[in-house]
Model the fold of this input.
Amino acid sequence: MDVLDRPEGFLMVAAVLFVIGVVGFILRRNLIVLFMCVELMLNAVNLTLMAVARYVGASMEGQIMVFLVMAVAAAETAVGLAVVIAIYRKRATVDVDDMTVMNG
Amino acid sequence: MTGSVVESLMAVAPALNLALAGMAVVFGETFIGKGLDRRWLVSLALLGSVLGLLFTFLLWEPASTASYSVFQGLATVDTFALFLGGVILLCTILTLISSVDYLRRFGLDRGEFYALVLFSATGLWVMVATTHLFIIFLGLEVASIALYVLAGYFRKRDRSLESSLKYLLTGAFASSILLYGFAMVYLATGTVDLNGVAAAVESGEASTSVMLLALALILVGLGFKVAVVPFHMWAPDVYEGAPSTVTGFMATAVKAAGFGVLIRVLTVGFGSYLPDAGTMLFWVAIATILAANLVAVAQSNVKRMMAYSSVAHAGYAFMALFVLTQNTPGASGEAVRGLLFYLPAYAVSTLGVFTIISFLEDRRGRGLELEDYAGLYRRYPGLSMGMAVFILSLGGIPPTAGFLAKFHVFGAVISCGVESGSSQPLALAVVGILGSLIGLYYYLRVLIFMYMHEPQEDDRQFRLPALGVSFVVLVTAVLTLWLGLGPAVGFGAADILGWAEAARP
Done:
């Protein structure tokens, strides 16, 4: 049987992408890279939703949700980059370790 | 009831009012200075949220006989949704009123602030008024993205920007985890409507391992949103850096919606898998109550202390969620009712505190340290009285709302222990009481500074509290006492408990 006939392959790739996103988010220190990691996680979810909608659920809900998740991700990135630019203007850094005005 | 477009729109009227008012405010901002005064925008924003609250009351009667399931089942407007939606709307109204004077003093009184508060409230309302997992996610994102902007609203201030960035990063991370959990539910059951999920779980079609993974992911995702240990590390920084009135909104309305979603997802969707989450919730509640209360003791910044206090209160609320996992139907009912009473009780007291904090903060961001509160009683006797009421309520001292809320939640935990005969709930109750005792230390310290210390000599001038500030403090203080005293003296506040009772999902 071809791998494209079953959802497992897609789900596996999605899970790997999601874990890469999580690990990257925890380990990396550059703000732009952190946003990319979140994008990776969201796209892993998108892939999962597509696979489930196609092979398991047999409903359109998952596929429609992919579009909405894309819109949400775009809005989030737009706000995020605006904040990063505002911070860069003030401090000329995009390193998370420098975000210590408050002792957190 | 499934009905026409008109009926659908009527059922979500509270959210519709918020969204329309928000758009009108954004639109109106364009005409500011061209014959339009900015006070009109605030009035417009208030009108939208007050109308929303009015519709909530109007919808209550019909919804309590049969809940509205509208927009092809995408929105479920039942008493549960209306109750929590009402709490969210109340928080919105009070936040709007207390923000006017605050923003004006900072020269940042613009329409977009009010619009963003309204949009955020719309998202929160949508979150609690649906059983569809994807709609929960969309509501959460609408609310969160507006809040990211609000947290960074003082964009000339380092702290505010940093607060926004930290909130955004952890928020986006948590949302992705939550969404992956929803996708796992979709994988296991082939549906994302909680009622359909429940049916699939019942019939044994759902894969147990995938459902448990989904449950864990959802608890982690929402754990970030309501800030429980070990997912709380963002809260102190975000709460400290954000504009004070926004912090108040985050600590109350967002928590109310977050716990609403938790209750609904856990009780409606997961059914037989719940006992497996018991141990996790048990340790999360214990860690949250102990860690947050202990760290709060060491804080000298009042806003930061309130952040840890808010984490601690999320811990008490988690005790009620723990009861839901214990297969004790009687105690579960009590727990949901207690938690639903806890949310407004905590919200009014916390909003009052943050209104006073925002009033005392000056243009340079000073006035937030505990020393700045020394001798406050002499300068602002009225506000100090209000602060005393709120602090006693947060500490859980009768005759305030906080006491009664804790009483009901702890009572539910104890009767769960009696009903199940297990020692876990009783241990949890002991930890809860211990945590409240630690909490009293740092809460009462604020009062000691205010009433017993000599005022500092400094250049800060006396400002007469603005009308909006006095109004919000008065309303929240009255509500705090009313919610606390009401049931005892038969003064109508028993209605709130009755409503909470009727609002169980």
User: Anything to note?
Assistant: The longest helix of chain B spans residues 158-189. Chain B touches chain A at residues 134, 137-138, 141, 145, 148-149, 152, 155, 158-159, 161-166, 168-169, 172-173, 176-177, 179-180, 183-184, 186-187, 190-192, 233-234, 236-237, 240-241 (CB under 8 Å). DSSP finds 20 helices and two strands in chain B.
